[in-house]
## 1
Amino acid sequence: MQMKTFFLATNDVELTSIRFNKQRRLTGEYIVNEGLPRLLDLYDRIGVRSTFFVTGDIALAFPVIIRMIVDRGHELGSHSYCHDDRFALDQLNLQEQTNQLSKSRKLLEDISGNPVVSFRAPALRVNRFTPIALHDSGYIIDSSISPQRADMFFSFGAIKKLNRLWAARYPGYVQKNDLSKRGDYPVFEIPISSLIIPYIGTAMRIIPYSLQLLRSLLAWESKLTGNPINFLIHPNECMVEKDNDSRARRSNNPFVYIIAEQLRGYMKTKNLGESAIRLYEQHLLYFQSNGFEFITCKDYFEYWKKTKEN
């Protein structure tokens, strides 16, 4: 019997402007009018059911986003309450994290009328308290770990992500104080696909040909092991912000400013808008033609449980 293979299209929805490197309400307006409709239309054309991780603050400012996602048949997940660096989970204690996660989950459920069980941390920044905070806040699924990803020094919270180099590549329950390791704590981790290079929209836009090679390697691994493909993209990548706001500086550390802001910011603005949609469509069609099933995080977890029971 041939092993089933799955592709998880996972989307982070937040007020972070790629061009201006800060949180902006105007970015939310671009998402509502340009970025999200393009992404949803692409999924409709190909027949993709996906998971959208949405921050509480953008849901509060633009509740229409929630209806756009849910009405198209996609899963709604949480991306914490705010993407601002001041609330990065790796800087918060257990109680502070629980407050952020609970507030986000309640807001999303109140707006959508649907249970929210899946979570992804902003900037994938977590610490030893995060598994407990997730469990205490009512989440079942997490997707914040990208194993063997070597570009961490281009991102915020890089030093605290070093353990990702040894993270498990396969989905499963986690250890009580470590999302990157497998154990018996009742939080289910679905890793973001990566192998040195992360399989995400940013890399797709910056190094499209290298990502085609990575795509082939990940597809081969998936067919061999059964590990799902988990691709991360933002509706912010599917739009072009054309106003003249100023770019914000987020760090006073000169090294972080040059590497994680200036250089990364320059690269991250490549192939935004329609170009990103065209590149992403090629990846989705590749996996569709290779027999992968498009599935949400929640539905994949239910499938995983059934296979373990049998």
## 2
Amino acid sequence: MSTDQDTTVAELRQLIADFIRERDWEQFHDPKNLAMAIGTEAAELMEHFRWVKNDESRDMACDPEVKAKAGEELADILAFVLSFANTAGIDITTSLKAKMAKNDKKYPADQYKGRY
């Protein structure tokens, strides 16, 4: 089975594109609906940790059952993120690296280390 260590973003994007095309779902995957789907799936991930204290949530994330459920929600989020990138023609790697460069300037490590 493939892992993060040996799978590219391009392979994941193609996996999602093929899945959507085989079902003729491109007609439903417009930017508005995909943005809403990302938000909905993120809310479903949050539900697993609602009303839980921070330390307890760390422990829960190590529980195999919770980890499996959270992994499914994270996979749903990622699938919609990849579909959004495919639909909008956004290069995720370029976007992420550019955003991290902005964040690096906005939050210099020497000033923000250990602070939020």
## 3
Amino acid sequence: MLALSLPLVFTSCDKDDDDTTVPPKTITETVVEGANFTLLEAAVVKAGYAGLLGTTANLTVFAPNDDAFRQLDITGDGVPDLDTEAKINALTGAGLDLLRAVLNYHVLTARVPASAITTAGISSPTYGPGSPGPVLYAKINGGKAFINGVEVVQADVSASNGIIHVINRVLVPPATTITGTVAANPNFSRLLYAINRVKNNGGADIAAALSGAGPFTVFAPTNAAFTASGFATDASLDAVPVATLQSIILHHAVGARVFSSDLAAGTVNSLLTATDATKTLTINLTGPAVYGAGNGAASATWPKITGVNLMQTNGVVHVIDRVILP
């Protein structure tokens, strides 16, 4: 280890010896020597990025700590995917390609100190071999820095070739639009059924809208959320008038990119509000919960946010445990 190679005792009284300073470590050396970066180190080595992060100048790296890796569930099956070095070292093929894409999404090709992040927010494309990668969004909320809604727990760790900001979640790059994610995830099959029923019966093409440029934020109810709200089957959705079902779905979407760190108590306009100004969403930070007037006054019936900051190419998705009722 570099630290062990340094002299521990200086015996000379020469002033030049007293002024000797330890050169700063590279980003790779900082990760290797960090006690809370064992899984990030394994990922960097497995991906073949030790040289990239050790020799490329002027980088900013958002470095997930070990706890962040232990919570990562890319597949959404409830089982952590990269919580051990053995799992990381076993990656091959598409799994290894995904690991590289995830690591790329944590790297900016410029130095961005915490002082450059503003309350209005900044954005920057990430590292990508050959062309810039997907954009990261940084913002100061309550005096803390957040990246895609993920908290920076230690800022401005200096390295010889850049800056490291430690974060407590792994950032997963967007792969598709909001509609694409809803269509691909079996946990959202009832939401997809409701969207398609509206379109197929003369209503709005909500799927096309949520595939647009956006940005949008969608509070997405799972199949279990539909069941908890009295829609246990697709047939139960068939009994809802199309206009009513359209209003319900539109009330789950906001015409802006809102990360969990941006949530503030109060009312928010949904896509439904544009056609009916009396219909707004209410945000309650206890839970946190997001609900409409139809969910009642009791907090027990308010939809709670159970999964946050799922990045999409045109916005962000938060998972909720009940259906929002206008």
